[in-house]
Amino acid sequence: MTNTSRKWIAAGLCYLWPVSLVLAQQDAVEPVRPSAPVLWRPYLAPEVPPARLDNSARLHDLIRAGNLYLTVRDAIALALENNIDLAAARYNPLTAEWSVTRYQAGGALPGVPSGATQTSFVASGQGVLGTQQAAGVSTATSTAGRGAGNTSIVQIGPSTPTLDPAYQMQTTFSHQSLPQSNSVLSSTAVLIRNQRLDSGTLTEGFLSGGTGSVSYTDTHLNENAPTDVLNPSSAQTLTASFQQYLLQGFGVAVNSRNITVRKINLQTSELNFRTQVISTVVNVLNTYYSLVADYEDRTAKKSALEAAQKFYDDTKKQVDIGTLADIELTRAESQTATSQQNLVNSDTSLEQDELKLKNLISRNGVEDPQLASVRIVPLDRIVIPEKDDLPPVKDLAEKALATRTDLAAEKANITASEVSALGTKNGLLPTLVGFVSTTQSGLSGTARTVNLVTTAGKFVETPNPYFVGGIGDGLGQVFRRDFPTELGGEFFSAPIRNRQAQADFGIDQLQLRQQQLTTQKDLKQAQVDVLNSVIALRQARAHYDAAVKNRVLSQQLLDAEQKKYALGASIPYNVIQQQRDLVAAQSSEVAALLTYSNARVSLDQTLGTTLETNQISIADARGGKVAQPSALPAVLPDRQ
Length: 640
Prior knowledge:
This protein has helices at about 5-25, 55-60, 70-80, 85-90, 90-105, 125-135, 250-255, 255-320, 325-360, 370-375, 395-405, 405-425, 470-480, 500-565, 570-605, 610-615, 620-625; strands at about 65, 65-70, 115-120, 145, 165-180, 190-205, 210-225, 230-245, 375-380, 430-445, 450-455, 455-460, 485-495. By secondary structure, it is of the alpha+beta class. Strands 5-6-7-8-10-13 form a six-stranded antiparallel sheet. A three-stranded mixed sheet has the order 1-2-9. Helix 5 (about 90-105) packs antiparallel against helix 8, helix 9 runs parallel beside helix 15 and helix 12 (about 405-425) runs antiparallel to helix 14. It is elongated. The two termini are about 80 Å apart. The model is unreliable at about 1-30, about 110-120 and about 140-155 (pLDDT under 50).
């Protein structure tokens, strides 16, 4: 590696050090990056921990003697720690955060092909070819290129410049043998050139739509031309350039639109995650209370079976002593069989809800041998307050519009679409680019005396003493601007009909209007949902009150019928009918109880207050670890 290359590497690292440090400090997902010095940290792959596939310790801590004892809070905590859907949703905000980082770097969309090119450089006035170039003679250069293809990228609107500074260094060694048809300048039939080219470029884009670059080249040349008065020689150039889009692609708002959209998407991903948490909690609550209702229904069905069995035994005794006909025993036996079938149906429903709850609160469900064999015993019951103190429906609707995360996400999406439309609108403008550049050159080398023999006589050529020296002399010429070159200009391009840009903008605006109307529809529907939820809650309470009264009356009628039957004033058929009515009333009461619970949970979800009502920390949900420990009662109930 040459001294010049080392200098450029050192300069580049000194430049990159503070930039990399700032980027690392701004990186919100820095904990997943490997620990490494800041110089090469940007070139290491982020380390994302593997997904946890086993259940949290809380699940197995709640198992006692083959039973999983659960309160509502523990069921929710287990879902927050182990639910697969929540575990997958946690990656969405992290992905959105990395997307912000990606677009803060600027540049074209991911996948745009790029290539690298190496060219043999000819400095003006250096060697035979440089002399020809300085004299205005065309000079060929050799180029080796590498690129990528077969990639199609679609992006509407101007592309943001690359905002991350980029440093490129190149060292090229070349050996050329060039036949000379006219050897006046070279005094040789074959010109042999040994060249080393060191170059470095630092480029950075700006949100204004401009791009600046600083380039340095150092060419060392040694050739066999007897006419060279400087051989070997060294030529240096330093170029600073800047170009700025003035119409299409101009402005911070246009070029930062992708960053702004990704920041909005980051907020939206947080809202969507909160919505997913609410959905999971609602599912857990409904399944948990459904399991509670299954146990209540099973208890009622078990009591009905015991009553039917006792009635069958009493009927059998009376048939045996001849006080009742045999047909009455058949009726009692049919009632017992019906009660047994009802109990089996209740057990089946219980097992199904139990399996559903296991899947909600665990990562591997029944694949865990310990979880597959346990029975879930809910410790909480459905409690209906004496009355529902609900604010006016208007106030509830306003609260829903203010707290619903799904509605907030839709509003944020509209904002993101409006920001993105800045690009399609700006794409309607023609392209106008202004550019300026300045180049300083230097030349130095080892002096040689050249004896020329021409028809006019003999001449002795010596180099200008100003160019005799080493690389330091050439650099002095560069920084003194002894040989400056300035360049400035503009480039303009405009499509004649511009139909593509107009169509893109028209489609974009039409889609935005559809999105606005859909959001407005959802806002109206949210108000309707609040009203429906309030009505459903009131109806559920009325049905429950009626079901309780019906069950009490059915119990009283059964008791009275049994007393009449014991006194011989009734027949077995009437007792069986009252038993059936009581079972139906008990089932209706349990169903009404569950309906009220679901209506209450649905109202909280409609209002967007599920997490607050159940005292759930979104930080615990995001981290997958609930801080509050589980606490089982000292005396655990037996399995029902």
